[in-house]
Amino acid sequence: MQYGFYFDSARCVKCHACEVACKTWNEIDLGPRWREVVKIESGTFPNVKAMNVSMACMHCGDAPCRNACPVSAITKRVEDGIVVVDQNKCIGCGFCVWACPFNAPQLTTVSSKMEKCTFCQSPGKERPLHLPRACEEICPTGAIITGPLAELAKVNREKAARRLAGADLKGMPNVVLDGAQRFAPPAE
Amino acid sequence: MTAMNRDVGAELARIKGAKTIKSFCYTCPWQCPTEVFVRDDRIVYQKGNPLSPNNIGARCAKGMASWYVSRDPDRLKYPMLRTSPKGDAPAFRRASWDEAFDFIAAKLKKIADTWGPEAVALTCHHDPNTVFYRHLLGDLYGSPNAGYAHTSGCEQDRRAACLTLFGHVFPMHDFANARYVMLWGMNMLGANQGLWESRALMDAKAKGCRLVVIDPNFTETAQRADEWVPVRPGTDGALALAMCRVIIDDKLYDEDFVNKYCNGFTGFRDHLHARGYTPEWAAPICGIDAPRIVRLAREFATTKPAISAIFKGSGYYTNGTDAGRACYILDALTGQVDKPGNIHLKDWAPLAAPVAIPDSAKRKPGKPPLHVAMGYPLAPDLPNSKLPEAVIDGKPYPVKGLFVHATNPVMSDPNRDRVMEMFRRLELGVALELYMSETALECDVVLPETSFHEQAEVRNGMWLGPQVILCQPVVSPVGEAKPAYAIAQGIAERMGWGQHFPYRRWEDWAELMLKDIPISLDELKETGFWAGPVKYDRVPAGLSTPSGKIEIFSQAYADAGFDGYPVYGERSVLPDKDYPLQLTHSKFSMHCNIVTQNNPYLMEVCGENWVEINRLDALKYGIQDGANVVVESPKDKIVIKAKVVEGLVPGCVSVRHGHGFGHWAMGSVAKGRGAHSNNLMDTHTSPITGANCYNECKVRVRPA
Fold first, then answer.
1. pTM of the predicted structure, to 2 decimals
2. Average pLDDT over residues B84-97
3. Hey, are the CB atoms on B61 and A15 less than 8 Å from each other?
4. Which of residues 130-189 of B touch A (CB under 8 A)?
5. For B311-367, where are the E strands, in sequence order?
6. In chain B, how many H helices and how many E strands?
């Protein structure tokens, strides 16, 4: 089963609560940003548009970070598809940072090891997968939903069905987005 | 669902090796009910209380990060007494609580003997525990000025408008049932994080509710809106009056409702005609073309249930009070008041006083309260901007002592120079503070108060129905910090009024407050809140206005020398050749006013403020995105980072969170980050309500 995030950019108001919840639950130091909300603006006055996207590790189907890691520190769990890094193996080279299209891997001088969203599966702080992730639990507007991709599909069946087809494509993120936002498949 | 939610907290707490305590968050005044995870006297996580109807299980960034305040090494640990003369570089020494209480009591007695008790005032941030000082300084000491808060720096005009029209000080919004929501200068989704309201608005939108945001700034709420109406700053009143005219002329108003339940409908119709308030008149004033005004008015009047609401933005101008009235008259004309999907005239829970002071012990004030004596009988709260006149000039009568609780007027009020001068002239300035704040530095005594994580509070919840929420102490106090109720008790004992503050534990006074609430304190400790039924349709039964009806016409305004109907007048400070840009302000959701900037976890997300400027103005004045700029008014100038944006009406700039950044005290994290903009503006005050007019300011910008 593949777990992932549903993100509804129509609801996100860039309040950053998800970032702070992520940091608090997972006990992350100042510095690394496992999750970050990014605002994209377009148009000219008065026809302006702004969209916010809460970004973290997408737990990709065929994770580029895993493929790039020279010491095999990054693995994708068979049972839930979550991409994890073994910090004991990580040498902090940063290949994963280059390979990731989303800047999810965080390599800072705090630990000098790569760290990133663990889908709240950090050792000793594992949230059971039937409960919401910290980012989902805190979101005031309900912009983030997490769970098995098959269940996320029910959130928006028609759109999700299209996305699901893409989710199994090589290198596509396991994120279901509303119609307002699409990620292009990575260039070959 | 309920049982399942209850288990989530327990399940998560087990993972953290923590116990959970039901409480509420007082980082901001929305005070969301919470579940706090505590392990080894430390807060390790927080959740929204999932059982509470006004939390929906969520938190905001500042609430989630608020654990830091309970461990912040920069917190005040001891009472401090000033050792340097006022105006000199501030110096303090550590004092004992006994010394501090004795000092305050002696000064209070001296001021009462020399000037009268009315010479002592209190200002606060609607902290529920301020109630103890109200009883101490109001009931016992006899000051008529102990009931004040900070509203004139906040939503004074909204309160005044709602009181005038509906007899209700703080209506909620029933977004969940609305199909059309029109927000005026109200950044519901950005600045005001009433989390359940944000969720309800988003859920309503997902079901097809149309959201229209009228604001010069493309705020977070405007960004999520179906339509952004980029009105020129300070012209909301003209736009709303023109829309009223359309609704009346097109006969789209609710005839039965206005005839039965509104005071002054026909007079208002004649007033709009006599004044010439039409869409064509408003268009050039507001920068919104007339057909669009007509369309918006028709949409609003014909899509029900609907809400037209304001918060702060429209009130930051000297014409803001009537703008607010006009925005709410849209609700009244269309009969959209207190029904499902309307603005909601919520019932308050009948909380009793935490102390029982017999009438025989109370001292009757000898003078009217300051706002009345100042000539603002319609003000719902003290006109803060006028307080310096009382302290410095003795007008309308001298004020010599000021208690400041959970607020920081030196930074939050306009015209910082004047506010600092006021504090230096006081005979007794008492700051009840978490930090050695900018205001504390100007005081004589600084008392370390516990944070909300270290104390109890009981208050009315900000929800549709009547609700009581409880904040429980979850961790030990920092240093020698005391809760407000213990501090008030200490002062009371020195004043000889100890018998009126007899509680030994917080539960003693909390039980008194709950005597009329159908829940015991023990039950409340388990649930964290009590909620009564949500009721609708209170208008036919009569409102708490003088006429019992919705007052489109207000005799009280007429009696005070204003027009009984809302009028549009130009704001006071207009840009000119030398200062070509209007200064406006907006806030952040990840910071609350002046209290969160020492939290490194919030500063990581948003560590400085900035000024937004439209790209066309940036081109004109040579401003680069991300570069520092000088923002200069006739009074002062600041250096601040610029953001060049499209989402702002050309001709104005918007300083974001200008009152909360640029700390020069408070703590090591906050100090020196960003820029403080409140000395750019001179003192301008709403003539009706005495509200601070932060946006009555013209500026010019240039690269730094």
1. 0.94
2. 96
3. yes
4. 189
5. 343-344
6. 23, 26
